[in-house]
Amino acid sequence: MQFIRLEKEDTVVPKNLRLQENEKAVQSVATILEQVKVEGDKALVALTKQFDKATVSSFLVTKEEIETAYGTIRNEELDAIKQAIKNVTDYHEEQIKTSWMKTRKDGSLLGQKVTPLEAVGLYVPGGKAAYPSSVIMNAVPALVAGVERIAIASPPDPFGHLPAGVLVAANELGIQSIYKVGGAQAIAAFAFGTESIAKVDKITGPGNQYVALAKRAVFGEVDIDMIAGPSEICVLADEGANPSYIAADLLSQAEHDELASAILVTTSNSLAEAVRDEVINQLNELPNSEIARQAISDYGQVFICSSANQAIDVVNELACEHVEIMTEDPLEMVGKIKHAGAIFIGPYSAEVVGDYMAGPSHVLPTNGTARFSSPLSVDDFIKKTSVISYSKAAFQGDAQAIMTLARMEGLEAHARAIEVRLKEGTK
Asked: For Zn(2+), which residues are the binding ones (predicted)?
């Protein structure tokens, strides 16, 4: 891990990882998108064989595959999926928006009509691991919002199968359109539609660099949630924090990806040293530690600050996906943190509880975009329409000001659309 000591006069904080654009990957994604747009399912078959080493002729998961999935998971796994669904649903039901109308004294009526999106495509990553949690965290906000048609796409294994946990989670949520296709080609299928996969209005969910670049490229054809980069965690801690907890939480994110950022911000030299030692010890005991070890080596950082205020400044400058607060009075710190995807307060609020069970979606802004972006929520699956109904009295009261503004902008036809009504009103 890299130690970065900040002096009192330091104002510039070295950035954590930012997703770097790879021109070769951009061109590859553009080719894939065009291929699927033109060739449809034929392209999906070829690309799935090329990238996933799987021969898939029918992409829709069958009822038999779902039944088989239920036969391969343990009872405690099914119970955990059901509990997560309940917790995440309870949380997101608090976010429900309703339409509203307001009548003013002059008789005009103004309001907002809230409408769920009709169709969304949820991308669930695969390959190195199975992610039933991604199904839950993407699907539940959409279901609570009232989306009519929800489809899932996820890359198959070389035998053309999806993980049992993914299928069970989707089935428990009532999602029937589950497709065995991944990567940029899955994004293209959702964006343009193919013979077997219908076009959607919005695509959500995390993925690798190719998925992220594909989502960015199809934005405008469809909506997207965000461009997700490598996972990030920042722990703000003082000398009283438990170094073994911190080390474990840093490694929990480091094991996601060799590019993941694991950062400690503290004012305590002794804690920094203890956490570094704990990270080394825990890495040596961690099965399949290669990914985490590489991430810690390349993107593990410890900022040692000269004051608590400087530590807060560092956290806000980094604007990480996950921020844990392990200080003597963590609630005092919460209001000072301006930029974070999610904040975890206290020693028992491990980031992992947010990944699986707490309730908020774990689809969060990364790469510093927490400065202006929010977690995935019910709001991502609705659209809002303004409603305007002017009474004659309201129209006459505002007419002159409207014409004045229109003529200030040189838009005479705008002004005359008001003027013609004023003339008619005097007859």
From this structure: 253, 256, 355, 414
Say whether 209 counts as a known binding-site residue: no
- 201 among annotated binding-site residues: no
Q: Are 69 and 138 in the same domain? A: yes
Q: CA 288, CA 284: separation in Å to the nearest integer? A: 10
Count of structural domains, the chain: 3
Q: Are 255 and 292 in contact (CB under 8 A)?
A: yes
Between β-strands 261-266 and 232-237, what pairing exists: parallel, antiparallel or unpaired? Answer: parallel
Ordered alpha helix ranges (H), 146-242: 164-172, 183-192, 209-218
The answer to whether 298 is annotated as binding is no
Claim to verify: residue 122 and residue 152 sit in the same structural domain: yes
Which range marks the domain in which residue 166 is found?
Answer: 23-224
In a shared domain, residues 163 and 312: no
253 among annotated binding-site residues: yes
Q: How far is CA 398 from the centre of its chain?
A: 43
Q: Give the residue numbers annotated as catalytic, written as ranges.
A: 321-322
pLDDT digits (tens, 9 = 90+) for 148-190: 999 999 999 999 999 999 999 999 999 999 999 999 999 999 9
Q: What is the pLDDT of residue 310?
A: 95
How many other C-beta atoms can be found within 10 angstroms of the C-beta atom of residue 107? 13
208 is in an annotated binding site: yes
Nearest-angstrom CA–CA distance, 234 and 239:
16
Count other Cβ atoms within 10 Å, centred on residue 38: 10
User: What's the chain's length in residues?
Assistant: 427
**How many whole angstroms separate alpha carbon 91 and alpha carbon 89?**
5
Does the structure show a pLDDT above 90 at 223? yes
pLDDT digits (tens, 9 = 90+) for 328-379: 999 999 999 999 999 999 999 999 999 999 999 999 999 999 999 999 999 9
The tokens for 80 are 């955990």
